[in-house]
Write a structure and sequence with these properties.
The protein is of the alpha+beta class. 48% of the residues lie in helices and 9% in strands. The protein contains 10 helices and 6 strands; from the N terminus they run βαααβαβαβββααααα. It has helices spanning 13-16, 19-24, 31-48, 66-73, 80-85, 135-139, 159-175, 178-188, 195-217, 231-257; strands at residues 2-3, 54-58, 78-79, 101-105, 113-116, 129-132. Strands 1-2-4-3 form a 4-stranded mixed beta sheet. Strands 5-6 form a two-stranded antiparallel ribbon. The longest helix is centred in the last third of the chain and has 27 residues, at 231-257. The model has no long low-confidence stretch (mean pLDDT 89).
Amino acid sequence: TAYCPVRPSSSGVAGQHTVFAQHLRVASTDPIEAFWNDLGKALDSWIAAGEQIIICGDWNTPITNATIQTFMSTRGLTELITERHGKNPPPMYARGSNSIDGIFASNPFIGVRGGYMAYGETPGDHRGIWVDVPQETLMGFKMADTPSSKIRRLQVTDPRSRKAYQDRTHRLFMKHKIYERIFTLRDHVAYPMTPQWAHVYNKLDQDMVAHMKASAFKCRKIWKGGKQWSVKLQKGRRTINLWKLVIQRHKGREEALA
């Protein structure tokens, strides 16, 4: 946030208590000139360090003024609310006629929601202003890795694949006495299960899963990774696919004429 001192309109008692007068008591330079020089140096250092800027200020000068617009735009900063709602903002000070408050920000924040509040909705004699910056814009966002799809060896929609899986699984269950172990467990286990029978149950489950995975693995042979990709290989694949399409189309015409 920032506050730019304003030159007092009088030299009386009231003027002696302004921020402008307070600065003059400890500094020899003009407080307004010092403010803009210091702000410019700070912004330049932050931008050079790669920082994104959002600065809300009571600038005590119309934010549509060419001087402040040039000061900000040369540093890649834009007033967010007027950029969204138009270049004719309402007065900000209850007893003033100019829009002297504004929020300037770097390009990534342009387009965020923002607006003006009514007088009295916030403490003080200025109209409240606000912008709503998404957390992803402030903190960054890392997209989750897209999992690569895996070729399923067991095709449940193919009756032949299902039958082959069931037959292999049945043979493995018979070979390793899975059915007998299931019946034994059923006949001897009572609630609550003892640690000994819990171990038997978990071992049975592990063996069943291992046999089912082994059966699924045998359902389909996947051809991949046998040859290194090359332009010549890709051209050959496209030629084969072309002739496959030609044959399919030719068969379709023959069936239509039959």
